[in-house]
Write a structure and sequence with these properties.
Layout: H1 3-6, H2 12-21, E1 25-30, E2 33-34, H3 49-56, E3 62-66, E4 74-80, H4 82-91, E5 100-102, E6 108-115, E7 122-124, E8 127-130, E9 135-138, E10 150-153, E11 158-160, H5 164-173, H6 194-209, H7 216-231, H8 240-250, H9 252-258, H10 260-275
Parallel strand pairs: 6-11
Antiparallel strand pairs: 1-2, 1-3, 3-9, 4-6, 4-8, 5-6, 5-10, 7-8
Length: 290
């Protein structure tokens, strides 16, 4: 049984039984806390249907799914808050077609994935990869606030080779940028022009995606250089970590060929050069008439 079908049931006991049939380890929870003492044992084995019946038949507990190897490399991206949700969805649009839940808090989302290779967990403010050794409360459980966790998008769980690029992106967000923007003796105009900035970003990423194999490294370096120049201007409103993640995603054809380390090295070479030369942002045309 596919995981997303398990959540078609209305009662916790039925969802838990269906999840076990689909190879997902589950435990009972009270709020967000395990309702059993030694829940760690279920990181190595699935509960039996009899155990699940004993836990959930009276309707007193919620349920949580355990990530990692025991659940066939289940990984849950836990986004806490509207900003985290919006940022992830803008940076990783190719990862959105998967089973997605609304957190009981009402302002977060859980996106479910299965990976061929295990993905290490990571946690910073607003962003988590919940995998080995971790659990996530799932629908139709109740949040401590009283609201229920709900299915937002009932889609098959997306299968990926790994989620390492997302893990590195989350890790980068917890670290200060190591490329300072140098002070220039010539002031850089700081006119706000979001439409121009977004059009430039979209254009450069499109150029990178369509780059021919023989010239892709040069295009990557040039795209990183030009986008770094824009991001170096504070008026751009761009987050450097987010832009670099978008570049890496657009360069996936290079990553598959050369490996992530070599691709990132090419990107950062262009980025460092561009960061030293902030570009002027033209003033927005607000429809003024002569």
């Amino acid at each position: 049984m596919s995981i997303h079908y398990a959540f078609n049931h209305n009662y916790v006991a039925d969802v838990a039984g269906a999840l076990l049939q689909s190879g997902v380890s589950v435990i009972p929870v009270t709020g967000k806390r395990p309702a059993i003492v030694s829940w760690q044992g279920y990181q190595q084995r699935l509960a039996s249907q009899a155990e699940a019946h004993a836990w959930f038949s009276n309707g007193g507990y919620g349920l949580a799914v355990i990530g990692g190897v025991v659940s066939h490399n289940l990984v849950i991206v836990d986004l806490d808050g509207e900003d985290a949700v919006a940022t992830f969805r803008s940076v990783w649009p190719t990862l959105l077609d998967t089973l997605t839940m609304t957190s009981g808090s009402g302002v977060g989302q859980h996106l479910y994935y299965r990976t061929v290779k295990p993905t290490k967990p990571i946690r910073i403010s607003g962003y988590e990869l919940r995998s080995e050794g971790m659990y996530t409360v799932a629908p139709p459980s109740r949040h401590p606030s009283g609201r229920r966790y709900k299915v937002l998008y009932s889609l098959p769980v997306k299968v990926l080779d790994n989620l390492d690029p997302v893990r590195r992106w989350i890790q980068q967000r917890s670290q200060p940028a190591h490329i300072p923007v140098p002070r220039s003796s010539t002031p850089v105009p700081n006119g706000s022009n979001p439409r121009w900035v977004m059009a430039a970003v979209d254009r450069e990423l499109a150029n990178l995606r369509s780059a021919r194999k023989g010239n892709a490294n040069n295009v990557l370096n040039a795209v990183a250089y030009r986008l770094a120049r824009i991001a170096a201007n504070p008026a751009s409103g761009l987050d450097a970590v987010t832009v670099r993640a978008q570049i890496m995603a657009a360069a996936s054809h290079l990553t598959n060929r050369d490996g992530e380390r070599a691709t990132l090295a090419t990107l950062m070479s262009g980025w460092r050069a561009g960061s030293a030369k902030p570009v002027s942002i033209p003033e927005a045309n607000h429809g003024r008439r002569n």
